[in-house]
Amino acid sequence: TKAARVCLAARGDPVLDFGLRRAQGLDGGVSASRAAYIGGCAGTSNVLAGKLFGIPVRGTHAHSWVMAFDDELQAFDGFAEAMPQNGILLVDTYDTREGLKHAVAAARRFREKGHRLLAVRLDSGDLDYWSRTARRTLDEAGLTDVKIVASGDLDEYRIDALKRAEAPIDLWGVGTRLATAYDEPALPGVYKLAAIETEQGAMRPCWKLSQQVEKRSPPGVVEVVRAYVDGRARADILYAPHVEARPAGPWYDFQGLPLSFSLEDEENSLKTAEPRLVPLFSRADDAQAGEHEATGLHTVPEAEAVVRARKRAQEELARLPEACLRIRDPQPFPVIVSHKTRQAWSALWNDSAEEPS
Amino acid sequence: TKAARVCLAARGDPVLDFGLRRAQGLDGGVSASRAAYIGGCAGTSNVLAGKLFGIPVRGTHAHSWVMAFDDELQAFDGFAEAMPQNGILLVDTYDTREGLKHAVAAARRFREKGHRLLAVRLDSGDLDYWSRTARRTLDEAGLTDVKIVASGDLDEYRIDALKRAEAPIDLWGVGTRLATAYDEPALPGVYKLAAIETEQGAMRPCWKLSQQVEKRSPPGVVEVVRAYVDGRARADILYAPHVEARPAGPWYDFQGLPLSFSLEDEENSLKTAEPRLVPLFSRADDAQAGEHEATGLHTVPEAEAVVRARKRAQEELARLPEACLRIRDPQPFPVIVSHKTRQAWSALWNDSAEEPS
Questions:
Q1: B281 touching A (Cβ < 8 Å)
Q2: Which terminus of chain B has fewer Cβ atoms in its 10 Å neighbourhood, N or C?
Q3: Closest residue on chain A to B210 (Cα)
């Protein structure tokens, strides 16, 4: 996901979700914050999402806080007084250099009151330049433990560039490009009818025929397993359970191009292949006492479900091929079709003239 | 809006909102359908939005309807039986040429049962070519009154191109690019504090200073009027009510560049200028009996509010300059600042050194 990619780019630095104000609607903002946390973000500025899903709430004051006071230092002092436990000061409302000086002055007064300045936040300008300036200013004032938060139109590419340049940024606030759909304004999937149940209860395969092979839809009920090589996922393998009980190679990708496995890899990977389809609901007439309990679907509170999903996302990411996790030029994860199943599909496609029989 | 632009491109042909399945969430889908209707769409395939806002519900069957039957003609006959009043057949599930033949056959059986085929729908391929083929096939079968609906990744640019080519399409189904944010994945606005109320109840101006003039924010409370020349909107004029009671020229755009009006135009446009800011809520202590009634804000049912908004949108569109309504290369509508107000702002900006006093 976008959040996972942003967090990968930050290489372990905490990433905070600052997306609410640009998300599409309250509903969209809350789902985006939930997804951001599952994908690896450390906290959110969305208080409602924090409350609903147990996400740590993190944020700083706004520029308007500073503008509401007669001068910046007074605004910083006022913030220290109002929120002594949240000593993060936004220093770029007027002039970042002056803002840093005011933050240093405010930090001393935080200390007098028994609190400490946690961080300064930079939200504009050349973040590489300003983070170095901020680090130097803070260090010279003996504030070596004060951290630097950066924000402002960040995404995984910008974070990656700043990390490569070794800009001294400790926390990342990511908003617009996390909570909205810049990369993919609409999910381009389509659904096709794959099978229809006859009155006798059998599943009759259906498919879309097309001159373009890649537009032909897989007929019938399909299962998916994920094959692993040395603990890393190698491919998802589609197969038709009515054709074969377990899929077997050789392997082809979805366009019919061969995918190479070493013979040993192939054997091992099939031994450890894991099913990817998990039933969420079963027919009412199949529902036995205990069946729903076993899946735990109806008993997990939302906040706990989010923590579980977040944990699972991290585990799955750790098992993905490195080539799929790259920030630039990531490779698509291979989805392939079992040979035997593909042969069965081809027979159906070829047997049908213009319409499925 | 996107819907208004899509409807403009269709030059009066009905446009149907088909966006629900690609919209972001249920909430996003319902708001998109509401906005599409206000912007000029003739109907929606979103049944919930139809129910909530009184939008006419229009749609056709899906490809899966056809695939659920043994053959296409049987599917068309089945649809005629199930939905005799909604005779729109999707003809491109397998082979569009065959689909059109089947539609003609189905149309004859519709007629036998006292109904009629309203339209065929094309959802793939070269819509210019297939609409001509469909028109010819239908006309040759004497079905000259059967209309053609086109859909499939449409937006205002594709509709405009098909209209220019005079493709014989009568209705347009627009989905993904209407209900999602392809053009503008996030609204790029920012908010800045403009004024703060002192304890004495006066409004003290605030502003953001920046080296870049276009990033400076207008200080203080601002009013906006729209000036009209010959019934067409010429510009929105910002002015500060504490500086001048009514704005006066010469006019500058927001970057300070001069905007030309003829002297006569200027005088007339100011006479007919209309306020653009309407209070939606007033302070509780100002609320007099009848005041809220006058605005009607609390008494309009949602469906009626949508109809009003739609009517207003059409009236406002008709008064916009033609250059702003172009599909390709539309000009931005001018937003300008009254000369006197700009002078007052400049004085504030210049008087303040690094921070507002």
A1: no
A2: C
A3: A94
ipTM summary value: 0.79
Residue B186 in any domain: the answer is no
Q: What is the distance between the alpha carbons of residues B80 and B100, in angstroms, rounded to a whole number? A: 15
Residue B94, min C-alpha distance to chain A (Å): 6
Cβ contact A59:A16 at 8 Å: yes
Is A216 an interface residue toward B (CB < 8 Å)? no
CATH number, domain of A117, equals: 3.20.20.70
Q: Rounded to whole angstroms, how far apart are CA atoms A120 and A131?
A: 10
Q: Is A181 on the interface with B (CB under 8 A)?
A: yes
For chain A positions 108-147, those within 8 Å of chain B (CB to CB) are none
Over residues A301-323, the pLDDT tens digits come to 788 889 999 999 999 999 999 99
pLDDT category of residue B296 using cuts at 50, 70 and 90:
very low
Question: What value does the mean pLDDT of chain B take?
Answer: 87
B54 domain residue, yes or no: yes
SS3 state of residue A16: strand
A277 contact partners, CB below 8 Å, separation of at least 6:
A223, A224
Task: Name which of B180, B196, B207 is nearest A186 (Cβ-Cβ).
Answer: B180
Token couple for A301 = 């509170």
Q: How many domains does chain B have?
A: 2
Q: Which of A186-200, A249-263, B92-106 has the lowest mean pLDDT?
A: A249-263
Q: What is the DSSP string of A25-83?
A: HHHHHHHHHHHHHHTT-SEES-HHHHHHH-PPB-----HHHHHTSSSHHHHHHHHHHH-
Domain that holds residue B239: 195-351
